[in-house]
Design brief:
Elements lengths: L6 E4 L2 E4 L1 H11 L19 H11 L6 H10 L2 H6 L7 H12 L6 H4 L7 E6 L8 E5 L5 E3 H16 L7 E5 L6 E3 L6 H17 L8 H11 L5 E7 L6 H13 L9 E5 L8 H9 L3 E4 L2 H12 L7 H10 L18 H8 L5 H17 L12 H8 L6 H6 L7 H11 L1
Parallel strand pairs: 3-6, 3-8, 8-9, 9-10
Antiparallel strand pairs: 1-2, 4-5, 6-7
Helix pairs in contact: 7-8, 7-13, 9-10, 12-15
Length: about 425
């Protein structure tokens, strides 16, 4: 049986073809997509090959401006060399890795900023509690420990990084003195990954033990990174040594760190006890250029609640958020702010210029999600005013503003909405 076309157009809206999905699953025996509601979601265009197929179904569909610009930049000889590839092969090579994880092409633009950092530092909690079970499973569906979850997510993030220019990657731990240092050294992505995976696997072979001196280690990291641009990521599962006092000190250190835009931090929680990492979610709200990412299942639920089923939040989309959401407070880290993306923002994130019907489709599903959201109670048993504001916001009345504005923060109704939330 020959493969059906990957995409289909229905009432002006292009989506993943259900027949292709069934064919793909019959070929591989695995789910064809990680999109939670593929019959509603806009299509994921991960490569130039995907784009060619899309155009046969949709007619001429230009790439988004930022995607076009990124493709040109990546094919510059110096840039391609920094990524370990030749100018005439880099677009196809990156297309393969983006296709593997279903990463929309538009997110390539976000990844390029990683080349601007002197160090990409992953800090891993290796305390004893990381040996406890998480709420994730491995590739074979078996429950993982929190340590295994951190190990797996780290390697997937490194795999993405292997295909973009970077200067230096360090993996450090809270208790052990091990430091894994990774550099390109002129190697292509596959050769680099063989070496990187070997070093990471050796570092993780010895299981977790000890306490959680996160405050001490983040202070040391900020000290040794003084005067540098460092993108930091922390894999952890709970409360640091020192309890509430330590949490407050960590937040204050990060709130007042120098040059936060070029020293972003992402909290990557690895646990089945969400209450233990709630402080990281709270910290994200007050620390500039900071993001908090839970596991894929939990993040998917949040995106569905705040954005609706039309946004194709794939596992690859999630991995990119883990890597660069902290650097993008206006879009990737704003998905949970209950404000729709403008058409221009949606185009740039997904990599193609959507027609009016497709953007309207996204907007309608956003409105549906807002109407369906539940209203939680505050500590006094009263409905949370923030939830009521989100549920009752009248975005339909300013739809045309969203279809024309470059970014949502330029829209007066959005400014008023955010002021009301702050109050």
């Amino acid at each position: 049986m020959s493969a059906p076309k990957k995409y289909v157009k229905i009432a002006g809206v292009t989506k993943l073809n259900p027949e292709w999905k069934r064919w793909k699953e019959s070929q591989s025996g695995k789910p064809a997509t990680t999109v939670p509601f593929p019959n509603e979601a806009l299509p994921v265009i991960s490569s130039m090959q995907d784009h060619e197929v899309l155009c046969t179904v949709n007619g001429d569909t230009p790439l988004a401006e930022s995607t076009d610009a990124t493709l040109e930049i990546m094919q510059e000889p110096d840039i391609a060399l920094e990524a370990g590839m030749k100018p005439d092969e880099i677009v196809d090579e990156i297309g393969v890795i983006l296709n593997k994880y279903e990463v929309p092409m538009g997110l390539m633009n976000k990844l390029m900023v990683l080349s601007e950092f002197d160090v990409i530092e992953f800090m891993v909690d290796d305390s004893g509690s990381m040996s406890m079970v998480s709420d994730t499973v491995d590739e074979k569906g078996r429950p993982q420990t929190r340590w295994q979850e951190a190990h797996s997510r780290l390697k997937q993030m490194i795999e993405i990084l292997a295909y973009v220019p970077f200067q230096s990657i360090h993996v450090v731990f809270l208790n052990r003195k091990t430091v894994v240092q990774l550099a390109r050294n002129g190697r292509d992505p596959k050769s680099f990954l063989v070496d990187a995976y070997s070093k990471i696997d050796i570092a993780f072979k010895s299981g977790p033990k000890g306490t959680t001196p996160f405050l001490e280690r983040i202070r040391e990291s900020l000290t040794r990174g003084r005067g540098k641009n460092v993108s930091r990521y922390f894999f952890g599962d709970g409360t640091p040594n020192g309890g509430l006092s330590a949490k407050e000190q960590i937040v204050q250190l990060l709130k007042h760190r120098a040059n936060p835009q070029m020293n972003p931090i992402a909290f990557l929680s690895c646990t089945n006890e969400d209450a233990q990492v709630e402080w990281m979610k709270d910290a994200e709200e007050t620390i500039p250029y900071c993001a908090e990412c839970d596991d894929f299942r939990d993040e998917t639920e949040e995106v569905l609640r705040d954005q609706g089923a039309a946004l194709p939040f794939t596992y690859g989309f999630y991995l990119i958020c883990c890597l660069v959401a902290a650097m993008n407070p206006g879009d990737l880290d704003a998905m949970d702010e209950s404000v729709p993306f403008t058409k221009a923002t949606l185009d740039n994130l997904l990599g193609i210029q959507h027609n009016d019907e497709s953007y309207r489709h996204y907007f309608n599903h956003f409105l549906k999600a807002q109407r369906s959201r539940s209203i939680d109670l505050d500590d006094y048993g009263r409905p949370k005013k923030s939830d009521e504001l989100k549920k009752n916001a009248n975005w339909e009345s300013v739809y045309q503003d969203f279809s024309r504005a470059l970014v949502a923060d330029q829209i007066p109704a959005v400014m008023a909405f955010k002021r009301a939330l702050e109050q």
